[in-house]
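New to this. Look over this protein:
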Amino acid sequence: MSTTIFYPDIFNDVYGPIMQPGSSSHTAGPCRIGYCAYSLLGEKPSRVYIILDKNGSFAGTFGHMNEDLGMLAGAYGLLPDDERLFDIKSILKQENIEYEFEFSEIKESNHTNAVKFILSTNASDKPSCSVTLTGNSTGGGMMEIINVDGYPISYYGERCISVFDLIKESSTDIENIPEQYKDYVFSSVLPASFTNARKEQLFNSITDLIKYANENNKSLFEAVLDYETSFTGWTKNEVINYFEKIKQAMHKQCTEYIKDDSKVFETPFSGYHCKEWISYSRSNPIYAGDVVKSALEYAFCAQTMSKGVLIVPGPMGNGGGYIYSVLRAAADNYPELEDKLLEGIAIAGIFGAIAYTRTSPTGEVIGCTGECGICASMAAAGLTYIRGGNPSQVESAASLTLQAMLGLPCDPIPGGFNQPCTSRVVSAVTLAVTFADLALSGRSGVIPYHEVLDSADQIGKALPNGCKCTSTGGICLTPSALNCKKQFEEWHNK
């Protein structure tokens, strides 16, 4: 049996994967699942057959979040950071690789983000020329492979291991496992893979984080470094260097559009607002203030999808960019904060890791509270920290922010010009700035952050299925939204 330890991590779950533009759960997660199927096949398939739950989240938003591109790219052997993802349909056509999507039932899983791949090849020199693999995209680009060729397994992409050994971990009937599965080997797809140096999770709440820091006479940032070194087995310098990599990717995500908009991936329904906001905000007074003005500019830049410009999730697709937008805008207006940005990103990250510990912060599970709400609370915590807030104020900022965003549905409108997502991103950015000020003024969050997360989990899970990223409820049922969806589907199916 495996002795590895698995728990939510900043680099894997929160700020991962660093990827091509899209959704972490709808693009990156299924891309990784497809890649796992590809890796077992051992070569490019001649046919890709993909089954999606007709009542699941992928079916509801299909094409709106590049689900089809991510799945096909993974089955072809690409990972989410590969720019060829956007051209995958043309690539498959050129190489005469057939593909088909079916919307029916997936008996192996009841997860709303389940996907089943059946890959086959015409090769005659292999004992098996096809692979059937089922996985769940669990949020933040993370996934779990749960079945291979009818054998139940559990694999998170965290280590290099054979299917034979995975079946042994999940089955008592090990004598009848076909020998061929020893040759079916998964490779790790996570930036922070399992090592023998991994330790138990140091803390699973911000309350315990603060207690750990106090007992060990450390700052919150130093405590976060301990968390990551315990998880990864890396040195502190290696952890800091990876945070620097994340910071650089976030910065490019939030600024590249201003430098070069030639690679923007636009459709008739994109609804990007960066150009309009820049034009307006630079020639008109912004009553909300300079920090919010700049933060929205960076956030709108982060929202644009540009081929080759990698994005950082956190936990929603562009969420890392939205968090950085707040920190970057603060440092632009108050230069003394510049040297603290990396620490602010790390502090925001640990709040995200705790969110993943207490719930599944995705639209498919607890609504947009799990995406915009968590991002806003992370940004508020990071901003409060770099402004000199004490640990209690940092937690209060996150708690206050998340309390204001409880119960949000996740109801993206296909063809709806990024609504209502844009409205909620704007809310996330502005609330983070506001509640950081409020916490620094002495306002207590009253409810510890982990208890707010537990409440978000309870409220979100009680939302109707149509309000959890299926585009079948909430604002998606308005006449105008239904018309947008009809127009999008006609365009996407051409």
